[in-house]
Amino acid sequence: MDYLAFMKIQYRVHHALTFLALVFAASVTAAADTPMAKSLRSLNSATGGQQVVTHREGGYVSHLSALSNPVPESSSLPTEARARTFFSAYRDLFLDVKTPLDLSTVQVSPVDVNGTSRVRFQQTFKGIPVRGGEAIVHLNNTGVTSVQSQLSADLSSVAVTPRITAGDAITAVRSAIKNRNKNSSASLSVPQLEIINAERLRGKQFGESRLAWVIEVIGGPDESIWVDAQSGRVILQVNRIAHVLARDVEDYKTHCDADLGTDIVSYSGNNSPSVPGEALSAWNTAEIIHNYFL
Fold first, then answer.
1. What pTM, to 2 d.p., does this model score?
2. 227 DSSP β-pair partners
3. How far apart are the C-alpha atoms of 101 and 120, rounded to whole Å?
4. What pLDDT, in 10s, does the model give residues 115-130?
């Protein structure tokens, strides 16, 4: 290869690398200037970087904990207004820019012994409740101390006008009950419209949000059934009878014999077993935890 050809190759390589560097720099700058990144920088500035943030799918925040420096919110405002002000200031941490921040207040708790109060919000989209779309804001007299959010993002493409009627949804539910339980005489609630991501409620990370009729089945199979409001297809059935308090606690006692065998003593049902020690503690604790989360 002669010298001139070599220099031409070097020239082309240099310009190619320069171009890639510019593209990379532009992409980094664009990423740094996203609405979410700006909100995160604003949050870091407000708290001095003293917070823990956990993200869910899409990068949106599911948990925020301000450690030593709560996110400042004026204590002169009512508790609900302070929580709403926080979400207005940092909405891009929780939702995409096209999904409106529509929150209805479910509960405002009184101040507890630790000086903390809580506001629970329910997400709506164009006036329709979003199943599982909830957020809880914890505040003290200084500001917001923590947030838990399961707000659904990317709702702008969801069609909110149903193609099938409430009556069609009832017919679909009757058919589903009959096919599965051979019982079509159960009582049904008045169908209500909701936006639901059935895949996420089944535990999957991603899924598609859609408009659905939700109907409560009472008598026989007590369950909630969602019918796609566009296609008429049953997309989710959830049994509403939880037998969690029918606990089964096993007490393992190891004997000091040759084979180190294990005796298993099992206590089932709702009546507390007459046993001492860790088995009884586990029995009682299971009920306490159930009632707390319920």
1. 0.70
2. 213, 234
3. 14
4. 999 999 999 999 999 9
The two three-digit tokens of residue 236, written as one number: 């989710």
- Per-residue pLDDT tens digits for 80-115: 999 999 999 999 999 999 999 999 999 999 998 889
The one-letter code for the residue type at 102 is: D
Ramachandran region, residue 278 (left: φ > 0; alpha: ψ -120 to 50; beta: rest): alpha
Residues 6+ apart with CB under 8 A from 155: 99, 125, 130, 195, 209
**Residue reference for tokens 């420096």:** 69
SS3 track for the chain: CCHHHHHHHHHHHHHHHHHHHHHHHHHHHHHHCCHHHHHHHHHHHHHCCCEEEEECHHHCEEEEEECCCCEECCCCCCHHHHHHHHHHHCHHHCCCCCCCCCEEEEEECCCCCCCCEEEEEEEEECCEEEEEEEEEEEECCCEEEEEEECCCCCCCCCCCCCCCCHHHHHHHHHHHHHHHHCCCCCEECCCEEEEECHHHHCCCCCCCCEEEEEEEEECCCCEEEEEECCCCCEEEEEECCCCCCCEEEEEEEECCCCCCCEEEEEEEECCCCCCCHHHHHHHHHHHHHHHHHC
